[in-house]
Structures are given as structure tokens and as C-alpha cells.
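Course assignment 3, question 2. Fill in each field.
Student: A.L.
Task: Predict the tertiary structure for the chain below.
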Amino acid sequence: MKFKTPTTIVATFRQISLIRRDIRLVMWSLVVLLLPFYVFDSGVPQPADWIALTLLPMLLKTWNGRMPGAMLRPLKSLLVFMAYVLVVNLVWSLVAFTFSINAKEGFLMAPTYYIFNGLMFFTFLLMFQKYGEFLLWLTVRLVLAAVFLQVLMSALARGIDGRSSVMFNNPNQLGYYALVSACLILFGQKRFKISTVLVTAGLAACSYLALISASKAALASICALGVVLLISKVRTIVLAGIVFSALIFTSNPFSRAIDNAHSRIENDQSYGFFEERGYDRIAAFPEYWPLGAGEGYYNRFKEISAIGSHELHSSVATLFFCYGLAGVTLFGMFMWGTMRGAELRTVIIVGAAFAYGMTHQGLRFRLLWLLLAMVVSLRELDTRERLARLAKRLVPGRPGRAA
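Answer field:
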């Protein structure tokens, strides 16, 4: 039966109540709700990750091994990119004769991030094949619930130098979570008829989380999402304008968060952009441009670049320096397969999520891969509906059928 988007609160709760009948939907709900809860150190699986790892075999058990071409193509491209990542890092491990999972001493940790995120991407696509539009509708609602929960918990969370991380391990993670959540909410606004009030509240909550994180990249990217609002419904523009004006120009936690973020930006005494993010390392080693330097063993650069033995603080720089033009090309093929045929609104939303990657390493962030899988699934949904409309017009005896 085709899923029909609920238009009332009662119908919404009725749909959500159906989740308890299916353990896979229960587990997926826990994955999305628990993504912002970091219990262990960064770099190791968190509670949501363990649940996702348990969910995947359950989905594979009932999968028929088939997948629509529009979904399969980006998945294949991603597998090729992941294979290249694995090969590059294994080769560099042999060349440097170091086999450590410590990123400063070896190359073995980096491939695990891409493999795990690839599995998250695959899990979403399998869930979509099984549950269709209902999964997308549910995921957006869960993201909204998780964002509101983080806002409530922010009052109890610890802060570092005026920056909050809530349940994450550092403020930048919170900022990126707020940004990608805002992207997902904007996807849901158009497709799943989320009310203007709820969308505005969700975007305000995401903006607040970005503000208390004081992440400059997240704040700038969320501001860029304002372009999407400008091409939205008039009532969305009006209500968002009223709400944000009230939050900015009155005394409340939102306006105080703006003041704190502004103070941090003004007092920033860091290096220049290129040195602080490690772009100078790229210029210093042109010999790595074709195939990459591998992602790890950063101690070899500790006396050479401004960031010393740390990783590059940029998704874009990491891709180019660690995997070279070959790796960038393979990742670009994956992104082309993901975004091919996307409308301008989708390009702006995903572009804002990737803009964060100019100044931070965001490729490891689980929610980003969920966003990309959402793009692929929404496109497949549009394709199915377009074919269904075409088939309906071609039914014999109906007006508009083919001659």
C-alpha cells in the first residue's frame, strides 16, 4: 500500500505507533535518535553505531540482492572509492613499514571510517527498499525530535570556553550535527508536508545548537541555507522572519548564544586559514598530488606544516592530499551518481553540508551519509511516481493514452 503523508497530529501519532510492531523500525528509530549521543571517545563506534551494525545483517537476511539502477550506481561508485582508500593506506603501511591504528603512527584506522559510513549508507538504502516513503517521513520526524531533545539537554550540558558540546565530545561535532539536521528538515519540508510552524521551530533549534557550539563553519553554512528559505513558500519566509527577529532582538538564550559566538569569532587568535586547516601541507608536497599520501602517519609532518602532526582540518584537503587526484575523481563519481538530476534546492542544501568540509573533516560524520542516502532515496521515489503517472496515462481506454 502506498504511504500517505499524515496531515493531522492524530494521524501522525497513529503512523508512529506502528513502529513498535517491527523490530527493524524500532532499531532504526534508535539509530537516528541516538546519533547525537557520544558515550565513548571520538573515533570509535558509539551506541547508535552498534545498533546500526546489528540492523544491517537483519536487512541482508531478507534482501533479494536487487536494487534499482539509480540507487545501485552511487553505491557501486562508493565501493570503488572505498577500495581505493583501502589500497592506498595498505600500500603506505607497507612502504613506511608501520601497522598502527594510531593515526599519528600508522594508516590502518582511516579505512575503517569510510567502510563504516559506507555501511550506514547501504543500510539506509536497504531500509528504503523495504519501507519506501514511510522511512523517509519517519527519519525526518526523528531528526526533528532528536534536535529538540538536544536543545532541552543543552541547559544541563557542560561548556568549554563558552562553547557547548551537549552530548558530543567536542563543540564542532555539535555544530555539524545542527547543520546536517537543518538540511534534513528542509528536505522533509517540501516532500512530507511538514507544517511551517514545525519547520521554523526545527530550524530555530538547529541554529541555536550551532550558536552554542560557536562553530564558525556551521554558523556560516546554516546562514547559507537561508537561500533555500528564500525560494520556499511565502508563509515560511514570513514566519521564519518573525520568529528569528524575535529571537535575535529580545533577551533570551538564543540572543545570548549569538553574543557568545560573536565574541569567540572576534577574539579568535588562530593561524591564517590555510595554515590552520593544513592546506599548506598540500603545497609543500606536490609529489603526493596524483595518488595521495595516505591518511595517517602524521608524525612525518610534525616539523613541516603549521598543524604539526595533526590531520588536515578539511574534508576537501584530506581527500586531495591523502588520496590524490585519483581519489578525488572516484569520490566525485560517487557524488555525481548521488546528485545527478537533482533540482537546485537539493544542490544548495547538500552544498551547504559540504561547505563545512572546507574547514573541518566532516567525511566521518554518520549523519552526512544519512543525508546523501536520503538524496538518492528521494530521487528514486520521484522516479517511481513519474513512471506511475506515465503508466496511468497509457492505460487503454483512458484519456491521453498512447496512439
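Instructor remarks: The chain has a mean pLDDT of 85. The longest helix spans residues 69-96.
Grade: pending
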